[in-house]
Amino acid sequence: MNKLKFSFIALAIFSSQASWAGGLLTNTNQNVAFNRMLSREASIGIDGVYSNPAGVAFLKDGLHLSLNWQLVFQSRIINNEFPLYALNQNNNSTTRQFKGTAFAPVLPSIQAAYNWKKFSFQAMFGITGGGGKCTFDNGLGSFEKIVGETAMGVTGLAQALDGASHGALGLTSPAMFGKKGYSFDSYMRGRQYYYSFSLGAAYRVLPELSAFAGVRGVYALSNYYGYVRNIKVGNVPLYTMLDATKTGSADIELNCDQSGVGFTPVLGIDYKTGRWNFAMKYEFKTRMRLKNEAVNQLPSIGNLPQTLGVMFVQKGMTPAQAQAVLTNPTVLGAMKGIKEQFDQKIDEATGEFADGKKVAADIPAYLAIGAGYSPIDALRINAGFHYFFDKQATAYQHREDKLKRGTMEWNAGVEFDATKTITVSAGWQNTSYGLTKEYMDDKSFVANSNSVGVGACIHLSKKIDLNVAYFHTFYSHFNGDKTENLNGTILPYKADFTRNNNVFGAGVDINF
Question: Please, which residues have CB within 8 angstroms of residue 333's CB and are 6 or more apart in sequence?
Fold first, then answer.
């Protein structure tokens, strides 16, 4: 039962991670100008309040404002294969495909800057982490795997009890546990938003050099809701093995809100020389501790012997006979194994979502470097590099130690003034995570990718620009094959992970 519980709670973490572009916990697409070009680290524009804050100091004096809206569709696909899947009474195939869908219809961001002489005073609001809701209507492969293993364990206990009672209990009959297999109902929904507000200022130290310093406040707000109900082993509802008087005694229900506050210092520099521009930004690690407010229901097997004793007496045994069966060495060994495993793992299984607990969830430090070149006035070519210091950001139970390295991104983009009214642009970005099979499971599901963005900036007037864009991410497949040791039997568990991502955006830039 503890394995069942652990798998379900792990699912909650995975289902919440609805990032758009960037690192494990960071959304870098904070402006539609990024969506249409994918390389803005060395660009001079109002979107630089996020991507190149030092460069904003080179804009004209006055107020500059950017209002952005994005719509995100994302799906996550896992193809599994496991021998025990064949015991599912509703689907006896050993292969499964599990698909989660995430949809964020409104993801806003605002950048503003007021330039005065050599100064640029800047502010931004955006969703720099999370950013949506993800739903798994039928759970995950690792979850069903644990249900299958639990069914095998319950069947084994039934066999031990029948052996100790010389068949008097009839637990292994077809009407009880003799019909091999399992069934269950499950649902999970995760929602995660990291709301951010930043303030900072840039200063033109020299005509060709500017520097920036600022701070971003981050408010994290998440909710996880889901359940596992109607678990049946053979023809027996599992609740009858825990507390026959309560039909929900074997149900699992998670309802947890998490919230936390963190602060991110940000530094930047921009250097212009001729037709070249070079820029760099560094965001420090954000220390984040999420506080849980939860109303969770988790099953307990602590009263299993008493429940079985009552069941045996109801079947016609005397209390002495029931006690003899329960103290049989084989039965004691089976129940002891379940109990010890339960007690050993209960903190791991429930700890991250326990009511009142604070959970480590640092946002990694982030370095961005960019270069831009304009061979002619109408053409601008950019290239950039990102590095996220994932291994230095503390996560729950130090999951960061399982990574090989931090996330690396390379990008390139180009924009061309096709006419006085329209600027067209396109870009590419490669994202490479430091993944390992140990890190890659249902609670940490990402995949390396290549993204392509296209779009246009329509100059409606001298003071108003309209940005429109679309970008798509092509994810690779990650092989997460592992083995499971089930009572000394080694079983292969195959897992293939991938995603699909689409983002549409529109934004208005206003220069007052």
Answer: 160
Q: What DSSP string runs through 31-96?
A: SHHHHHHS--TT--STTHHHH-GGGGGGSPSEEEEEEEEEEEEEEEEEEEE-GGGGGBTT---SEE
Instruction: Please list the helix, strand and coil fractions of the chain in percent, rounded to the nearest 5, in that order.
Output: 25, 50, 30
Place of tokens 């099979």: 437
- Give per-residue pLDDT as tens, 448-502: 999 999 999 999 999 999 999 999 999 999 998 888 877 678 889 999 999 988 9
Dist CA 483 CA 80 (whole Å): 12
Q: Identify the H or E element spanning 308.
A: helix 304-314
- 258 within 8 A of 212, measured Cβ to Cβ: no
Longest CA–CA separation in the chain, Å: 96
Does 486 or 367 have the greater pLDDT score? 367
Strand partners, 206: 209
Q: What is the DSSP string of 124-192?
A: EEEEEEEEEEEEETT--HHHHHHHHHHHHHHHHHHHHHHHHTTTSS-TTSTTTTTS--EEEEEEEEEEE
**pLDDT(92) > 80:** yes
Which whole-number Å values give the CA distances from 240 to 98, 100, 231, 301, 406, in the listed order? 30, 32, 10, 12, 48
| Residue that has been written with the tokens 């079985």 in this structure | 308
Distance CA 93, CA 87 (A): 8
Partners of 350 in the β-ladder: none
| Rounded distance between C-alpha atoms, residue 267 and residue 367, angstroms | 10
Distances in whole angstroms, Cα of residue 53 to Cα of each of 119, 386, 425, 472: 12, 15, 21, 26
DSSP state of 401: G
Work out the number of other CB atoms within 10 angstroms of the CB of residue 201: 17
What's the rounded Cα separation, in Å, for the pair 262 and 333? 49
CB contact at 8 A, 75 and 499: yes
Compute the distance between CA of residue 459 and CA of residue 474 in angstroms, rounded to an integer: 31
- The residue count for the chain: 512
Q: The whole model's pTM is what?
A: 0.87
Q: Are 312 and 322 in contact (CB under 8 A)?
A: yes
